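Q: Give me the 3D complex with iron/sulfur cluster.
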Amino acid sequence: MPNKQPSNETDKIKVDYIAKRCIHSRKCVLGLPNVFKPGVKGGWILAENADVEELVDVIKSCPSGALTFERLDNGRVETHNSIPTVRLWENGPIEIRADISMSDDATKSRALLCRCGKSKNKPYCDNSHIDADFKATADPKSLKGEAVEDLLGKPLNIAEAPNGPIILEGPVEIIASSGRSLAKHTKTALCRCGASKNKPYCDGSHAKIDFNTAS
Ligand code: SF4
Ligand code: FES
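A: Here is the predicted complex, encoded as structure tokens.
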């Protein structure tokens, strides 16, 4: 089970936090400093200190999915009307925003997945790319894609090939860090060992380097 820290709840919203998924991007702390107070004893999320809609907007800006919420008042929830996206981070992970279908039930809308191969919390990023000095462009040339229109509205299924790539199945658009569209796919395999010569895609290099997802 994910390592959950204290959550905070009002009559309108329940906020949850998965510490192992946080990469300290500080969107929460900078967005609502009265709510997200690292170091406060007994729980660092003080949900009652903000308007619920503002709180929802800041939680949705959390790229890692460490922060999630449940509305208790039938209010606005997190939806993805457009095509699911995979955004490349320069020398870092991939950011997924989609209606996610994954074996991990805690991941429903947002995730940062490791692509350097060094995370101790695979498939999620844990910032190991920084110490590993991982290099991977977030702005490659546009890539060859395929038509996805028939699948729009379907969730994005994310699976982990043992000692191999991340398999995405469903409509998805790969985008550069700038937001520039690179390619659309209905099924693709993305490198997560760090060794592919064709990043962000898997090119089979994981076999040559004996990539081990357990380490
Ligand atoms: S926005 Fe999310 S990833 Fe960033 S510090 Fe807050 S909880 Fe962690
Ligand atoms: S997972 Fe990196 S090349 Fe296949």
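A quick observation: Residues 92 and 130 are 8 Å apart (CA to CA).
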